[in-house]
Amino acid sequence: MQFEQMHELKETGFKATFFRGGVEVGTILCAESMDAMRSVKDLDVIYIDPPFFTNRHLSVNGMSYPDLWESIDDYISWLMPRLELSRSILKDTGLLFVHLDWHAVHYVKVALDSIFGYSNFINEIIWHYRTGGTSSRHFSRKHDNILLYSKTSNYRFFEIYEKSYIKYRYGFSNTRIFRDEKGFYTRVKCRDVWDIPALRGNHPESLGFPTQKPVGLAERIISSSTIPGDIVGDFFCGSGTIAYAAAKSGRRWFAFDISPVACRLAIERIAPLCDSYTIESIDGRVLQSKYQCSNRARNGAHYDEGKKG
Fold first, then answer.
1. Which residue range is the domain that position 77 belongs to?
2. φ and ψ at 207, to 5 degrees?
3. I want to staple 163 with a disulfide (CB 3.0 to 4.6 A). Which of 132, 176, 185, 205 is the partner?
């Protein structure tokens, strides 16, 4: 691959298209979220990780984005049309995951109830993690909230399982017991509290992107809502974790972000999972010709085509 030319992609308005076996499998589009969302339809699942209403300018390793608002009403007014458009481009069997935290989740829950209907609310998933930083004025805030909605009552949901560690083996005569490096465990249906470690700077997955999410979180979302061949949408894709997990598990994807830095990073990250890619401007001008990914890169990607969940 030839990533040395990526620095030329400094402005929004470009699209990367990925191929595997001569078939188009995914797109990364650098554009404003509303414009990008209007370009797709019939998605099986949508994941949205918008700004959290922190009223801060986040910056790490030269990468940054503003999360600054006049008020909570200003924020909700900006987010509402994106939530409405999300519903319109979902399949009737589709699901929407909206990733937030304590700053605005309760306001967004009310907005989503008005758009999707209160009866189509499925879960509030708590992503629990352990990171540094505490306060003497309140309990430590160590979780995010992921709101799960369906478009209709005829939605698809795939049960997934997680490990539940046990101290002793006795008392589980009718239950299969497994063992790994942490000890003995059983497999139980996944609960709505997900204990998945957040990424630290020294973690092998970390790319230094300010809001990067762990692949394990993305895999759980995708496995519970899709099967191989389904279409995944991510409209604030950042470093491309959802698209990466989708590509790795045989799903197709549309990933969008307004940041050229984020999109360049996502392209570099996902390219080794595919055979080739092209980059062109939205108006059709070819910015980079098709590049073949090396066999070494593809073999190192551990692409799990056909694996369910």
1. 3-299
2. -110, 5
3. 185
Q: How many domains does the chain have?
A: 1
State which H helix or E strand residue 245 sits in.
Answer: helix 241-248
Residue with tokens 């101290």: 167
Judge contact between 236 and 28, C-beta under 8 A. no
What is the pLDDT at residue 66? 84
C-alpha to C-alpha distance for 256 and 264, rounded to whole angstroms: 11
Which of these, 11, 8, 27, lies nearest to 19 by C-alpha position? Answer: 27
**CA distances to 16, 29, 259 from 12, in Å:** 12, 9, 7
Residue type, 171: G
Half-sphere exposure (Cβ direction) of 34: Cα atoms closer than 13 Å:
6
What is the reported pTM?
0.88
Q: What tokens appear for 79 in the block?
A: 């987010």
Residue 92 scores a pLDDT above 70: yes
- Better-scored residue on pLDDT, 134 or 84: 84
The per-residue pLDDT for 3 is 35
Residue 309 lies in a domain: no
Domain holding 117: CATH number? 3.40.50.150
Q: Is pLDDT above 60 for 305?
A: no
- When the pLDDT of each residue in the chain is averaged and rounded to a whole number, the result is 87
pLDDT at 197: 92
